[in-house]
Write a structure and sequence with these properties.
It is a single chain. The protein is α/β, with parallel strands linked by helices. It has 16 helices and 13 strands. It has two domains: 181 residues, Glycogen Phosphorylase B (Rossmann fold), CATH 3.40.50.2000; 153 residues, Glycogen Phosphorylase B (Rossmann fold), CATH 3.40.50.2000. Helix content is 45%, strand content 16%. It has a seven-stranded parallel β-sheet, with helices on both faces. The chain has a six-stranded parallel β-sheet with strand order 10-9-8-11-12-13, with helices on both faces. The N and C termini lie close together (11 Å). The structure holds uridine-diphosphate-N-acetylglucosamine (UD1). Uridine-diphosphate-N-acetylglucosamine binds next to helix 1, helix 5 and helix 11.
Length: 357
Amino acid sequence: MKILCVVGARPNFVKISPIIKELKKHKKIETLLVHTGQHYEYNLSKSFFEDLNINDPNIFLDIHGGSHGEQTGKTLIEFEKVLLKEKPNLVIVVGDVNSTLACALASKKLGIKIAHIEAGLRSFNWNMPEEINRVIVDRISDYLFITEREAVKNLRKEGLENNVFFVGNIMIDSIHNNLDKIKRSDILKRLDIKPKEYILFTTHRPENVDSLKNLKKIVSIILALHKEYKIVLPLHPRTKKNLEIYDLFDSLIKDSIILVPPIRYVDFIKLEMDSLCVLTDSGGIQEETTFLGIPCLTLREETERPITVTEGTNKIVGLDYDKIISEIKNLKLVKKRKVPELWDGRTAERIVDIIRK
Ligand code: UD1
């Protein structure tokens, strides 16, 4: 059996690493890794391969930048060539980025089976490029591997009842697999900060950082918080570019604001673990903080990962300044919540068992 695994952007690397590790245990499975190139900088790509012990990709498409259509279209064209040459029995795609959509479409058009890991999540916000990607990829996938039970309902409403497998959360496998390294990380020392004295702040969603109005709100939230707390602020290239374009970057240069480039995997999880709380618009970070028991305030109007709110440590706060300040003041009241069902580090094992049958 020949399986082609696809990655493109930062969160994909975290999700594919445990799958490749598990697939390699089975001699009869030949596994190839394709990197589309969507994320290409060392900090967003290669450093993740190093931390997560993923071998260099077998095939690198080197497609990045451009509009969504251009990126998706070019990836579809190039990935189709890979499929025609390699003739895999199955393509595994993860998450909801443009590479996920492009590679799933190319596979389906050639009649090749697709497994989608992290299926069934819905924000119901069609302004998010990821929502479009999720819905389409699920519709054409042959295996739908889900992280939480709510996803079953979402898929059922779209007429997708078959081949839905509740396997748990693959991102948590990566934390389990790398826990020793994470604990040994000296990132706090390097940033000269102590556990629980800082807030970890990440933002990169187009709706937050492409709009001047929202980016200004974000900057004013950071500027209010930095008077009382240290803020660790890793800057995604999109965020950095827009802060510069809108002339907001210099206002963030303060002693208590630790501005850093994107942080590699092991160091980032360590920073999450030891933070007072995390403010983010990322999807995966909502899940990791729930697993780690760290309070998370999500700078969006909704989440496609509702279990992080109902069972985990996540609160949806949007860019509501008053709500954010009041939540942070009441942090001590946030109890350590439940780790969701099957977020146990054995998701890859369950997925590979199902694929082998
Ligand atoms: C993508 C995903 C998003 C995910 C995020 C994680 C889509 C639609 N979005 O968003 O779901 O949460 O990755 O980071 O797929 N760039 C660099 N260096 C890089 C990579 C990108 O400078 O290594 C630049 C690109 O040229 C582009 C911008 O950053 O101008 C955005 O990159 P892109 O991959 O299109 O989307 P992200 O915002 O990273």
